[in-house]
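Dear colleague,

Thank you for sharing your sequence with our group. We've completed the structure prediction you requested, and as agreed, I am returning the results in plain text so they can be pasted directly into your records. Please verify that the sequence below matches your submission; if there's any discrepancy, let me know and we will rerun it promptly.
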Amino acid sequence: MRIVDAHTHLLPERLGRAIRGYFTQAIPPESFPYEHEPARARAALVAAGVARCWSLAYVRRPGSAEALNRWMAETWGSDPVVEPAGTVHPGDDVPRVVDEALGLGLRLFKLHCAVGDFSLDDERLAALWARVSDRGIPVVVHLGHSPMGPTEPDELGILEALANRWPEARIVLAHLAFPSVREALAVLRRHHSLHGDLTPVLFHPIPLQAGDLDGLTDRILFGSDLPSLGIRLPDLVRGVRELGLTAAAEEAVLSGNADRLVPPRRPHGLTGS
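Please find the predicted structure tokens below.
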């Protein structure tokens, strides 16, 4: 079964080290089975059978996105495995940063509200939503304000308002808004432009049972959060396969939906180190 991991973070080594250091303030370093260094993280994905991955960039403050977007494009733009994402902060010159990222060939974006301390409906992001709506470019969004990742149920209202305003935007809800998963699934059912990914939060897989994804499997993506992951990636894949999905639905979740949103640059030969 082909696997596309639509939620990884293969970032500059210094940034990756800082993120790992943040988590290991409270979590023993040995709890993380994957190294943060980008080449090693890529190798771990390939070794686990991942054909492609989306590497999602995000920033804490204005003024950081441009350099990170350039690094993502230069490092991974021609890589057959890694699909690099761009990012932007509402405090940036949003039209200029987004246009440069698109000019670099970046084909998706990531917004992390908690890390960047902003709201998804910040009016300064309107230029981003206009551009991605026109071009069919997906945006992975991490809702909420807790730096450790959880999303509160009432924060999903912002996502609904955004989906109403920008109905053509292909928005992917990271972590299915864990732990507010039931509420998130209801929002996805009301807005057919919205997608969600099954990315765990550190040691917590998305809690799903057979039937929870009925009618949604064409909009659900597999994700791991590697290297910020306390679970072995094959165990995550096994969890999808234990949901009792049809073969077609399982294929869609594990690879097809991600490949549809961001088509492979090359149709074959997506392995290697």
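Summary note from our side: The radius of gyration is 17 Å.

Kind regards,
the structure core
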